[in-house]
Amino acid sequence: MLLVRSSDAKRLVLADRTGTLEAAARGDVAAGSCVRVAGRVEARGRLAITAVRDAAEDEYVLDDLLDGPRIPVERMEADLRELIATIQCDHLRALLDAVFGAGTETWELFREAPAAKRYHQAYRHGLLEHSLTVAQSVSAISATFGGVDRDVAVTGALLHDIGKLDAYTSDPLAIDMTDLGKLQGEIPLGYYRVRRLIEDLPGFPTDLAVAVLHIILSHHGQLEHGSPVVPCTREATLVHMIDNLGGKLGSFDRLEKELPDGSTWSGWDRVLGGGAWFGAAREAA
Amino acid sequence: MLLVRSSDAKRLVLADRTGTLEAAARGDVAAGSCVRVAGRVEARGRLAITAVRDAAEDEYVLDDLLDGPRIPVERMEADLRELIATIQCDHLRALLDAVFGAGTETWELFREAPAAKRYHQAYRHGLLEHSLTVAQSVSAISATFGGVDRDVAVTGALLHDIGKLDAYTSDPLAIDMTDLGKLQGEIPLGYYRVRRLIEDLPGFPTDLAVAVLHIILSHHGQLEHGSPVVPCTREATLVHMIDNLGGKLGSFDRLEKELPDGSTWSGWDRVLGGGAWFGAAREAA
Amino acid sequence: MLLVRSSDAKRLVLADRTGTLEAAARGDVAAGSCVRVAGRVEARGRLAITAVRDAAEDEYVLDDLLDGPRIPVERMEADLRELIATIQCDHLRALLDAVFGAGTETWELFREAPAAKRYHQAYRHGLLEHSLTVAQSVSAISATFGGVDRDVAVTGALLHDIGKLDAYTSDPLAIDMTDLGKLQGEIPLGYYRVRRLIEDLPGFPTDLAVAVLHIILSHHGQLEHGSPVVPCTREATLVHMIDNLGGKLGSFDRLEKELPDGSTWSGWDRVLGGGAWFGAAREAA
Amino acid sequence: MLLVRSSDAKRLVLADRTGTLEAAARGDVAAGSCVRVAGRVEARGRLAITAVRDAAEDEYVLDDLLDGPRIPVERMEADLRELIATIQCDHLRALLDAVFGAGTETWELFREAPAAKRYHQAYRHGLLEHSLTVAQSVSAISATFGGVDRDVAVTGALLHDIGKLDAYTSDPLAIDMTDLGKLQGEIPLGYYRVRRLIEDLPGFPTDLAVAVLHIILSHHGQLEHGSPVVPCTREATLVHMIDNLGGKLGSFDRLEKELPDGSTWSGWDRVLGGGAWFGAAREAA
Amino acid sequence: MLLVRSSDAKRLVLADRTGTLEAAARGDVAAGSCVRVAGRVEARGRLAITAVRDAAEDEYVLDDLLDGPRIPVERMEADLRELIATIQCDHLRALLDAVFGAGTETWELFREAPAAKRYHQAYRHGLLEHSLTVAQSVSAISATFGGVDRDVAVTGALLHDIGKLDAYTSDPLAIDMTDLGKLQGEIPLGYYRVRRLIEDLPGFPTDLAVAVLHIILSHHGQLEHGSPVVPCTREATLVHMIDNLGGKLGSFDRLEKELPDGSTWSGWDRVLGGGAWFGAAREAA
Amino acid sequence: MLLVRSSDAKRLVLADRTGTLEAAARGDVAAGSCVRVAGRVEARGRLAITAVRDAAEDEYVLDDLLDGPRIPVERMEADLRELIATIQCDHLRALLDAVFGAGTETWELFREAPAAKRYHQAYRHGLLEHSLTVAQSVSAISATFGGVDRDVAVTGALLHDIGKLDAYTSDPLAIDMTDLGKLQGEIPLGYYRVRRLIEDLPGFPTDLAVAVLHIILSHHGQLEHGSPVVPCTREATLVHMIDNLGGKLGSFDRLEKELPDGSTWSGWDRVLGGGAWFGAAREAA
After folding, report:
1. Which residues of chain C lie closer than 8 angstroms to F188, CB-CB?
2. Band of pLDDT at residue D131, cut at 50, 70 and 90
3. How does pLDDT run across A90-114, given as a tens digit for each residue?
4. What is the DSSP-derived secondary structure letter of residue C62?
């Protein structure tokens, strides 16, 4: 039983939770459907399909077919609440509650959302996984280097990708950018959402708002990557770099899952700017 | 009587409405002050100062010292209201009234604001002059090429730089970027302002809002120039290109004013990516 | 009845005047031929061909199959002559007559030529359409911004792409670059042609020649786009920017024609550096 | 009592441990000397010197004039030994002992060396401070993201800049690149040093050597930054990103020290690609 | 009888010594095998295969199928020894003997190795052909320009690509990068090999070593091309430029062999940054 | 007795044939004049001027003050005529005679012209020196690599920079770009000149003309360096690369002349993209 990840004129990509398989293109399967496939795996891990049919709804459990986070969502939610509880500043905690509070509309969306369309954590709960690991890392190293305001940095890390709620569809079978995402960009969308929320929080200090909003706006690090401003504070620099690191390590995870048996090198990858080598890791295991 | 445009360790730049003069650096004059100067003009139009003192307040009229638009501000205001009256769509006219309506706070600021810190129309009323000429040009050619929604394009042209109200200080003696301008960027600031205004306009169609906001967000044309998205509509493309054209032609105006007598070439200019040649123009005059 | 626009190992592109259709690659149809096709349109507007045969010569009228300008060629020719008549300077009018005069060899070629191989106005009369709309726009806004020599700018706008007469083949069924186009470039070819013509016009002022030739040489705007010099005059800047605008808006026209029914987004486009959105336009219609 | 950091035709830069001051250029002071200065601080924190003379050797303690790490060197050495003790793999610990073992020639050099000529930690013990904080951060977050071999990553982090021992002079008064540094590059120099050491360690596993050497070679992240290969492993990616982060945060430290009283913005900085803002931080303090 | 150069999901590339042919992809032939093919050549030189089978070992001589150098290997070896004999400096000749001396392990590898995986001289003896022609050209023009140390330049030219011995597999049927080549880069590998050899040559002058090693490290000319340092000496500049020239001319050779009959233009080529034109050359022949 | 090479607000550059000296800026000396100077050389080879006065015309011989070629002009002219005599093709020799024939206007200009304003061979006879050495090198290596048409390559090498006759002023005291050079570019100017000459040579084969003109147009190698087309033939590639090499080696010559005694490194150089090292060369001498 496999999920059809994509189906175009060039090839068919099939997947379940444990990995993906490529096959020759065919006209009779639609992206986003679940199919039962017979065939054999050929050289370079390519699947030669001998028969294929749509699966009936009672033949599969969707979560078994979809890729997902390493850690169960309940555990991630608990970790998130624990991290928020360590924030000392009342204003920032109030802002985080307005976004992540149990029962808020934002939280319902955030919990389910993917982190991307393709490159890393492109699956259900991916946004939560990505934001949480970035915030945990930021928290872990905020004391190693001097002068970092940990509360601001962790808050910015948790909120940096909030614009993806508007910029991506959340259907796990067909993650895509929305019209708003393409026409306004995830960064302005997140900036608007958080600035609008802060406007309604009484007594929120202006400088604190500026510090948090600057993290959201600058977190892509460079203008050519879609940030209208570059990071000008230690906290914004920290979140940008750890976000970037998280995205790259997430790409290693994805490439390792897609790696055919016996291979130690992935193909050229856009995020890494090269191939990924799993030679040493494998022998170490 | 001259205004001190800048005074640093390298040189002194003095100006009145008709042009600028450079002189050697001196420690006793402050940028933004008005001074009475004695001296002579040397080779390459450089001023050799023999005496200088601060001018008394009753010795000068500030507007005579400041650079300004080609056309009187009252005439530009009338042209603006005339152009707005040609907009057919009630929603867009309502939006423009909310921004440019006589008596609104936005209009008071917009009328006075400069268009930039340095490169073009860096003077009082400069933002009005720039926005108006861009909108007039957009209006003039919107019919030459097919498929352009003139109402949307003209509205976007008038609003495209509205974020400069927050991104620049308005003191004509010391135009500078604000902290907000540096930390959030003029494009997100303008986007927030207009989206927030539209939120309060009853029944404003979503697609119309998207079309106008997309013009503001994309008007720098490329990510590396600070637009978080590139132009995806004919109207956004039109406003971006004419805005760009207006900026470049404004640079020719500035360079021509600064040109020493007898020169036909300006120095290398960042906006133009080269020097400006005034050889043919002069002989034609 | 459809014209085979291209036929390679990947896909077949079929077109008539109203748009294009893609189909799977097949070995039995040649690019540039006219075919009669039976089949059905599938998902994403792709054509599934069930039968195809070459059309007989009496089965079709070529002009019905070819894409073409929005406005009839006779009307464009009249508009061109009208625009030339507004040029005040006798020398420039003489130059334009030498190029566009009825009966000259250049005019015969210019009237038929395409404006490009692929991106915009890649059809018969495309070069006339493109040059005319650029010149009309230049004329329309030359007064909005100060200091522009309208005669020089309009002349440069009409002549800027004249090198395409040598750089492209004119067969509307197989528009391609010539060896000269690839080995010498359309800009040097146009420069040579106009400079050589001016050499034979008695008393043509040197500065006027320099001003017009500079527009041709610099109209791609940047060295990396094939202009050996960047625009150094207001007129060259104006023609470059409006030429660029015309090319981008021409791409919107092409993308809209190719858009499958029901789609609001084109694919990524090299000229636009992104996708084109036709969502708002459609609902407005 | 101030140290002359640089003295050229443009300006004089004076410093002690707490910060730097600029003054007008003068011909009578040499870079690297200690001087006694009389004068007053003017606008923008610039020093107007009224008298200056060379200090006698008994008038100052060099360490009071030099910038240095936040943490005492003895404490950093203890932290380093503690971190090395956490490495599980005997081969890697042997390699680290060969480099950092008390009494080795490498350790004597490493303990004193600066991390850079100008941008960050350009002072005595700077290389130790930089390598240690990068390795501590790598250690702290190696468990947050999955699949990282902590031993390899921490070893690579400690060794990544080892080539600076050959590429920089160690005189704290005149940190500069050596001829070897300019002609061979710090990365090949470090690679040679470590590969040569490993050659002499009996039984060092090839794959482990490859994994560590790859971190050194790729730690600048991109070819255009001087790495002959890009990071292809999780560990190399991690070290590259945290090294980069450490360099940027080190620039914030330097810029904050140089910031004139009353300023909240530094000037444009090459490492950050923009200015640094200390507005929020100051008010928070 | 043809050698299968590559076989993937897109196409099959077949070759013998005289050139290459493309055909449609098929699943039953493996890259690196020799096959007997029946079929016909279609438009654009594409092969339509009607039958294909693996060739028996006694059906072909491998050297007839493989591309190779213009000049026999014995002649190239003699030319190399003759060139080395012209080196005046004993130390450099000793170094060259250590690398190219008959019977050394390095020479055995060097004589067989290809110069690249794809772009130029990607065949047996290709590295010898490339290094020799570069060194001969360097020798031929070292006197035309002043100030060049011919001995150093010729030595550097012969050794510049020595790292390819470690960076590429030598199997002429499947030239590929090794893990070491991908993880360490051919330039650091060559640098290590030569520096390690020099370490064992008694009395080798330091400056001479620095001059030769600098040529190896900088011969790609720019950081973004994988050189950790740029050429800082006349000799390094000379070797870099002639190496580059040799690579480009080698690409012309490859493109000419692949050119279908009747064509005068190759396709776009990555090395040349454009197409290659063989129009004039052919008519001249 | 020294020639004032440049005199601006920052510094004074003085020179004679053997090298250059910098001094502090002063207002009383004009660029291009000859002055008698008293003073002493300070640290870093900077001149501290104690007295300066304009030299009388009978106090100096201009050629002693000006930098110049390594080889006397008469010898270069003889070498040029000898090289031209080796061209086998009558058409190409006729073209070269039309340009370089004794008594032609072109030859009079060419013999005197500088090769550049600043970077290499920026002195009288510099264009002849540069063109001749490039052509000699092209001739020397045209047989090493296969497939090169030597006649075409050498002709192109001699003519490649011919546009500099129009693009630069020839006054050796004030080499500068002309208006034509800035507005049309040296490459189109050279292209026009040679194409116009060929037009008047009876029976000149079209393909030969195309091959030579392509060398002129493409010799800067890339669009961003001002060539409207990239090299598409072996001959154009060869001339481009050797021209480039000649320019870089010419920069080494200039930097070595400017090097203060005792220095082994030049400053950062735009042409080289780094500093030049003269350490090994000096010790070798």
Report:
1. 187-188, 191, 217, 228
2. very high
3. 999 999 999 999 999 999 999 999 8
4. H
* Calpha distance F256→F252 (Å, rounded): 6
CA gap C214, C191 in Å, rounded? 9
- The pLDDT of C188-195, averaged and rounded, is 98
Which residues 245-274 of A have a C-beta within 8 angstroms of D?
245-246, 248-249, 252-253, 256, 272-274
Stated length of chain A: 285
Q: Among partner residues F43, F46, F277, which is closest to D183 by beta-carbon distance?
A: F277
- Measured CA to CA, the distance from residue F236 to residue F159 in angstroms comes to 12
pLDDT tens for B222-279 read 999 999 999 999 999 999 999 999 999 999 998 998 888 788 999 999 999 999 999 8
> Over chain A, what is the mean pLDDT?
87
State whether B179 and A227 contact (CB < 8 Å): no
Segment holding C53, helix H or strand E:
strand C47-54
**DSSP output for C186-235:** HHHHHHHHHHHHHHTSTT--HHHHHHHHHHHHHTT-SGGGT-SS---SHH
Residues A204-222: what's their mean pLDDT? 97
Find, among C91, C237, C158, the residue nearest to B278 by Cα: C237
Q: Return the residue matching tokens 């006075």.
A: B112
Q: Nearest-CA neighbor of A233 among C35, C18, D269, C19? A: D269
Burial tier of C275 (Cβ tally within 10 Å: 0-12, 13-18, 19+): middle
For A228, the closest of B179, B180, B188 (CB atoms) is B188
Query: What distance in Å separates the CA atoms of residue B213 and residue A183, rounded to the nearest whole number?
Result: 8
Close Cβ partners of F280 (under 8 Å, ≥ 6 residues apart): E149, E152, E207, E208, E210, E211, E233
Name the helix (H) or strand (E) containing A245: helix A234-258
Q: Helix, strand, or coil here: D36?
A: strand
The helix (H) or strand (E) run that includes residue D126 is helix D126-141
**pLDDT score of D283:** 44
Q: Are A127 and A115 in contact (CB under 8 A)?
A: yes
Q: In this structure, which amino acid lies at residue B186?
A: E
Q: Which amino acid is at A39?
A: G
Closest Cα partner for A274 from A261, A283, A265? A265
Instruction: State which residue of chain D sits closest to E232, comparing Cα positions.
Output: D183
Q: Which residue shows structure tokens 């509650």? A: A97
Residues ≥6 apart with Cβ < 8 Å to E24: C9, E11, E12, E48, E49
Nearest-by-Cβ selection for C277 from A9, A27, A183? A183
Q: Rounded CA gap, A43 and E133, in Å?
A: 40
CB contacts, 8 Å: D9 with chain F = 11, 24, 46
With vertex at residue F82, the alpha carbon angle to CA F81 and CA F85, rounded to the nearest 5 degrees, is 85
The answer to whether the CB atoms of B184 and A217 lie below 8 A apart is: yes
> Which residues contact residue D119 at a Cβ distance below 8 angstroms, ignoring those fewer than 6 apart?
D247, D250, D251, D254, D270, D271
Sign, Cα dihedral of D190, D193, D199, D203: negative
For D51-75, b where at least 16 C-beta lie within 10 A, e where not — what string?
Answer: ebeebeeeebeeeebbbbbeeeeee
Residues of D in contact with E210 (CB under 8 A): 179-180, 183-184
Q: Does D27 touch chain F (CB under 8 A)?
A: yes
**Phi, psi (5° rounding) for residue F38?**
-115, 145
Residue with tokens 């059906």: E59
3-state secondary structure of F152: helix
Using 50, 70 and 90 to split pLDDT, how confident is the model at A221?
A: very high
How many whole angstroms from its chain centre is CA F283? 29
What distance in Å separates the CA atoms of residue B269 and residue B252, rounded to the nearest whole number?
Answer: 10
